[in-house]
Specification:
alpha+beta; globular; nine-stranded mixed beta sheet; 18 helices; four-stranded antiparallel beta sheet; 577 residues; 21% strand
């Protein structure tokens, strides 16, 4: 039994209900491009909404984080990872949570107590020292010398305001001769689990008050803990990656030793690409948002395949992606359902990038009559995907110099600009939806219903993105909407707004919701008991909210733009005036 199965089985015996893993592309969440943590899909329930499965939950969640993309290639970083989590929604709290974690580590995974250390919240001017957690750890056998009291990393809040509280982190010592004192600066101590106790609420004035309903949110990374349990200090030598690395080694006829960086990047990036391409949101490589990340991952994997002298024209990417699909399809149904889609997406992007590389080589030949300045080097990188190493290699062949220092300055400035531009995308958290975003969320239901009536009853939502300024709605459609179709859709949505239709929330079995004809974007993510939002007689959708009470609150609906999103998918941008 692997780690995921052991974890789920353990918490099921403690009366936790297993919830389905949500898609990697969040539904109707503008704050992030991808689900970045196990708790993210549970935000409405951590904010107080009742969960259909009850108060004790457990799952394994697919997560994607690209903020450390340039670090991938070392022994521990990944863009895709699986997060194990268990939650208490107003049920048990610190003592029980800590006991459950301790017993799983020591009695199920058989980790010696002497290999463990923890951190607890030290306290500050506003909040007391977390003596409950400290005393519990001591009672379980953790020596006081192995408990670090800190303030820096042991208080959790998603943003500036909202639910917050202390957390306790659990560390494992990699190596022999465990030191008596727990030193957080000793890299041999590796964090393996974090238990967050949502105990307080912080308001806009900075006041902190006790929450009447307290929650527990925990997270444990599958990749890191698997490597620890298997006694390897390189995640890519654990059972999660070992067969993929072995296949890459076989394809390239090279040993892993000495070629670690490129092999790790290929293994990691193709695994992440498989999960993005298999997602029900039908993401395709593009120059924006999730599509841009998918494109960048595939192209970076191709560049490192070239470094390993793999024949790019061969089906190397299909062999690796197939192995990854077969490894994970038992746990994630969308991999089985979109098996061929994934292979086609990766192969088609490989073919496109090979053409781009050819164009880039032609561009290089045009400008290589003199030394390569920083602007030219960055243009080759930004437009043609040339890594600086490739530009240097080509320049060396012609005895030319490259302004590497200048390129690095431009590259850092580009990274900083990207971070700034994406700040809104990645803020996330429990701050909740604004009133405007709630209106736009409801308007997507009306737009979906109107498209079905005016364009075709085969129209289905493929994704959405909402900000305080506008809504963006992707839907399946085989043609560009005519001006007449857009006008009719707009008119119908506004008629329903003027009709002041009531928005009702109904709870029912998932199978009954489907039989009733309720629309659903990601059917596999929903539990057996679901929330269905009904808008008069015009719309019925499975959804997690939030919504207005009556359509009259929405204002005037206006389509600003209609365009192609990807093959067979159109995109509408609209505003509420």
């Amino acid at each position: 039994m692997n780690l995921k199965d052991l974890y789920i089985d353990y918490f099921k015996k403690l009366d936790h209900k297993q919830i389905p893993s949500s898609p990697v592309v969040p539904e109707n969440d503008p704050s992030v491009l991808f689900n970045t943590a196990g708790m993210q899909p549970l935000i409405p329930y951590l904010m107080g909404e009742a969960h259909p499965y009850g108060k004790r939950l457990v799952d394994y969640q697919k997560c994607i984080r690209t903020n450390d993309l340039d670090s991938v290639g070392d022994s521990t970083h990944h863009t895709f990872f699986e997060m194990l989590g268990n939650w208490s929604l107003g049920d048990y709290f610190k003592e029980e949570s800590i006991t459950y974690s301790f017993n799983f580590l020591t009695k199920v995974l058989n980790i010696p107590v002497d290999k463990l250390a923890v951190t607890v919240f030290k306290g500050n001017d506003l909040i007391d020292f977390d003596s409950v957690s400290y005393n519990k750890w001591v009672s379980l056998g953790i020596k006081p010398s192995r408990i670090a009291k800190t303030t820096l990393d042991n208080f959790w809040i998603a943003g500036e305001t909202g639910p917050c509280g202390p957390d306790t982190e659990i560390f494992y010592f990699r190596g022999e001769n465990v030191p008596e004192e727990f030193d957080l600066n000793d890299s041999r101590w590796v964090e393996i689990w974090n238990n967050v106790f949502m105990q307080y609420n912080k308001d806009a004035s900075g006041n902190i008050t006790e929450l009447p309903k307290k929650n527990v949110d925990t997270g444990m990374g599958v990749e890191r803990v698997t490597a620890i349990l298997e006694g390897v200090d390189d995640n890519y030598l654990s059972s999660i990656f070992k067969d993929v690395i072995s296949l890459i080694s076989s394809i390239s006829n090279l040993d892993y030793k000495g070629n670690e960086k490129s092999m790790r990047i290929i293994a990691d990036h193709l695994r992440t690409a498989v999960f993005i391409a298999a997602d029900p949101a039908s993401i395709k490589p593009s120059n924006t948002d999730q599509g841009y990340i998918l494109r960048r991952l595939i192209r970076r994997a191709i560049r490192h395949a070239k470094i390993l002298n793999i024949d790019i024209q061969s089906n190397w990417e299909v062999l690796i992606a197939t192995l990854i699909l077969d490894k994970y399809k038992t746990y994630y149904k969308e991999l089985e359902d979109n098996y061929q889609v994934v292979l086609d997406v990766i192969t088609n992007e490989k073919i496109k990038f090979n053409r781009t590389l050819e164009k880039g080589l032609k561009e290089f030949n045009k400008v290589s009559d003199k030394d390569i300045d920083k602007t030219t080097a960055f243009h080759l990188y930004d437009t043609y995907g040339f890594p600086i190493e490739l530009t240097i290699e080509l320049a060396n062949e012609k005895n030319l110099n490259v302004d590497v220092e200048g390129f690095n300055e431009m590259f850092k400035a580009h990274q900083e600009l990207s971070r700034t531009a994406s700040a809104g995308k990645f803020k996330g958290g429990l701050a909740g939806d604004s009133e405007v975003e709630t209106k736009y969320h409801t308007a997507t239901h009306l737009l979906n219903a109107a498209l079905k009536k005016i364009v075709s009853d085969t129209v289905h939502q493929k994704g959405s993105n909402i900000t305080t300024e506008r809504m963006r709605f992707d839907f399946s459609c085989d043609h560009k909407l005519s001006d007449e179709e857009k006008l009719e859709v707009e008119k119908l949505v506004n008629k329903w707004i003027e009709d002041a239709l009531e928005v009702e929330k109904l709870e029912m079995k998932k199978e009954d919701a489907i039989k009733s004809g309720a629309e659903c974007m990601f059917i596999e993510k929903y539990p057996d008991i679901v929330s269905v939002y009904k808008i008069g007689d015009v719309s019925s959708e499975l959804c997690g909210g939030p919504h207005v009470k009556n359509t009259s609150e929405l204002g005037h609906f206006k389509i600003v733009k209609e365009e192609a999103s990807s093959s067979g998918v159109r995109r509408i941008k609209a505003i509420l005036e």
